[in-house]
Amino acid sequence: MKTRTLLAVSAAVQALLIAGAAHAQSNVEIEEVVVTAERREETAQRTPLAITALSADQLTKQGVRTVTDLTNIVPGVQIGSTGGSVEIAVRGIGSTNNTEVGDPAVAFNIDGVYMARPRSAAGLFFDLDRTEVLRGPQGTLYGRNATAGSINVITKKPTAEYEAEGQLELGNFSLVRASGAVNLPFSEQVAVRAAFQSSKRDGYTSNAPSGEYNDEDATAVRLHVLLRPTEDISLLISGDYFRNDYAGTANAPLGQYAGPGDPYTYPISVPGSSNQQNYGVTLQADWNLPFATLTYLGAVRNDIVHTLAGSGRNYPYGTPRPANRCEPSLNLGCNTIYFDSKERQETHELRLGSSEGAFKWVAGLYYFEERNNVFANVFPAVAFIQPNTYADSKAAFFQGTYSFTDRLRGTAGLRYTRDHKGRTGGTYVALDNSGGCMLPGGMERPFLGAAPRGCLLYGNVADFSWESTDYKLGVEFDLTPTSLIFASTSTGYKAGGYGDGLPPLNNKYEPEQLTAYEVGAKNRFLDNRAQLNVSAFYYDYQDFQVTGTGVVAGQPSAVTVNAPKATLYGAELEGTFLITRNDRIDASLAYLHAEYEDFTLVNGDAFSPGFADYSGLTLAKSPEWTFNLGYQHSWDFANDGRLTVRVQTHYESSKNLDYHNFAVTDQDAYTKTDLMVTYDAPGGAWSLMAYGRNLEDEAVLVQAAPDAQNANRLGGSGAYAPPRLYGVQLTARF
């Protein structure tokens, strides 16, 4: 879409809005959301990139309870929770490699701290100030693994006012969720904010004979301590802890393997159990110098997972069980999966920047380090023992914006990144019940200290480095004080990686490189009662990293390969209109074309041995059309109470969830509708909400893979988003 087209669209919409709302009230306006997407404070409407910013009030009113709910609100975003992890795709770009060697394509940040393993993303989603969803590569300011974009979750910080709030939510599947927060300003120099959330819910997946999966029994706490020793220095010390003790998640059989009836009910071999912990401490220090602000942001985080899970049917439903296939009801031929991971990450960022005058700039240094100890046992067949998996990343960056005139500005940015990744470990087979080697004369190797041992099949050793220099060039122009147009070109980079085995046969894959071109317009009309933002983009991808289910030692395993070239282009539109003080409409529309132009595997894969050609296929998780529409109306009562009814719907065209594009991994077009009714007491002392989500009770796949182990493109497994949810939530404020 050319710039003149954007101008024409903006002018046409402005004329229509003025003509259609000449008699509307003028004493209301859309709230401004202040963001830090470009490492300085400015409103989302003045930020020249595709960003959706949602304040705490908007998150509440639009029913966003977890990070996965953003799918129903933000255009071009696909977020699903599976296997205890969160998979995020933006504009068709994502990653399904959730192993210790995989990297996300979308950077997930909590208060500026990058989360390498965002398994606890949903657990940390409480007491929020706002969320910022940045679409498009963020190669200069965010760098590592931000090729598709960045999701920034900003929690509420200590303030100078006393504040306390509590919530209690009851819902179906025996949901009981409680949360609360208190803000304590002890003096002008010291303030504290503490918050917690506890959530317990039965599973929505019934796996006879082994009980329920996809349940929840989680607790999270967060503490911020703000110190201001002088007017120019502030220190924010933060700590958080999240724990979930639950049955875990279970993959549903698909295609030939699925039985008739409810997709949330299917057999699995053993009861599951999972314990997940994520905790860390963060220090942010800001020093206001005469010419700039110096900021240090450092964090240490730990992520610990212990999981036991069974397996389900992997042969066609209704046929006799083959001797080498899994029959859950008999618990024969089934694998039991044990997974233990201990991950520690450390990040340090030092920034110096100024947001004053004609030239606004920021420069910085960044360091990231991750260490992971993993034991994954698909008992009794194979075990993957990786006691030393490591990664570190170093970067230096600069970005500046210069105002040529009061209305015309230009931006330039540059970032150099060097990544180093590797591991030592091995793949073991033929374990007996105690974990010993069953092969006569087999070579036994101890792992994880006094833990069981097996027959070493092959070692898993890697040590690789990559580097990249990324840039951003942009220009922006104020058509009016409330209308901004912008254009940019930028690059993104995602580090390469490796698979199982020894070099050079350990499936090394190259970094992916992205060059993006984008134009957009942001507009406010009718005294800030109407807002229309539009953007169009074109991506040229090189060595796009594609992860699917392969076969290692006869067992399914994540395998990543490079697609030499992929092309994506599309457009997004977001609008809000306050018809009156009591009537609001918001909508978004996204179009996406995402295709592998060149994607051949010279050695083939499990489904096409010898040679495979997937050129021309659609990228996973890239629906052509997505549409969101919401309407809310409020009634004001004589006692200053207020009743608000909101209905919102989300539509997606069909999409495939795997790069093979087999029918078994298709998700058909669907619509999900939510309804929320909220009463706010006079003065906002308390509020009561009743809600229903996914009123259609759609079973929507968020992850799916064909059966690579048996090379069966007609059968597979996947994970579904929750079915219909409903409940009530009481909030009290003090």
What would your notes on this structure say?
The chain has 734 residues and is mainly β. It has one domain: TonB-dependent receptor, beta-barrel domain (Maltoporin, Chain A). The protein contains 2 helices and 42 strands. The strands form 8 sheets. It has a 22-stranded antiparallel barrel. A 5-stranded mixed sheet has the order 3-9-10-7-8. The chain has a 3-stranded antiparallel sheet with strand order 4-5-6, with no helix packed on it. The longest helix is centred in the N-terminal third of the chain and has 18 residues. The chain starts with a helix and ends with a strand.
Quick synopsis:
The protein is 3% helix and 58% strand. By secondary structure, it is mainly beta. The protein has one domain: Maltoporin, Chain A.
Task: Kindly name the structural category.
Answer: mainly beta
Q: Report the uncertain regions.
A: 1-25, 440-452
Looking at the structure, the CATH topology is: Maltoporin, Chain A
CATH architecture: Beta Barrel
Shape descriptor: globular
Please count the beta strands (DSSP E, at least 2 residues each): 42
